[in-house]
Amino acid sequence: MFDETDAIILSILQENARIPNAEIARRVEMAPSAVLERVRKLEERGAIRTYDTILDPKEAGQGLLAFVLVRTKGGCWQAGTAEKLASFASVQEVHHIAGEDCFLVKVRARDTGALGAFLRDQVNGIETVHSTRTTIVLETAKETLRLDLSEIRWKEDRS
Fold it and tell me: What is the number of domains present in the chain?
């Protein structure tokens, strides 16, 4: 868990990971060295996993978004299936899910032809894959990686 100051710092960093440390310190009314130490501790314990640049998929030639439900042969957790799915460059997310299907895979592709080739040549090439069902996204109303930190329970230690 985070204390309230950590949550504020993390919210600021989610908004803009390139914000200067001095500006974060000003916003949380702390010394820059204290903020830097908190950020380092959050990184060390894995609360901050990475700092990424998020590209516009259309500008990058990957304007088609699809979600693929994958069912495997002989039960839902076939050894290595998730890792094989995750290894493909066009795959952004792989989730092991409950229900009839086994995995939910988020895929970006240039167009329907590229998506079809990906499904045919790569996903269906995995020997444990039994079947797939694909949903193509027509329009996205919201897409974010940010977590809502407004309702987390603060830990007692306010260090």
Answer: 2
Which class for 88: exposed (0-12), middle (13-18), buried (19 or more C-beta within 10 A)?
middle
Would the pTM of this model clear 0.85, i.e. be above it? no
Q: Domain span at residue 29? A: 4-44
Please give the DSSP secondary-structure letter assigned to residue 125. Answer: T
Same domain, 80 and 124: yes
72: helix, strand or coil: strand
CA distances in angstroms from 28 to 5, 59, 80, 93, listed in the order given: 7, 36, 45, 34
pLDDT digits 0-9 by tens, 84-96: 999 999 999 999 9
CB-count exposure of residue 115 (10 Å: 0-12, 13-18, 19+): buried
Query: How far is 155 from 158, CA to CA, in rounded Å?
Result: 7
**Nearest alpha-carbon partner for 140 in 72, 88, 67:** 67
pLDDT digits (tens, 9 = 90+) for 110-140: 999 999 999 999 999 999 999 999 999 999 9
State how far the alpha carbon of 111 is from the alpha carbons of 55, 58, 63, 91, 124, in Å.
17, 11, 7, 14, 18
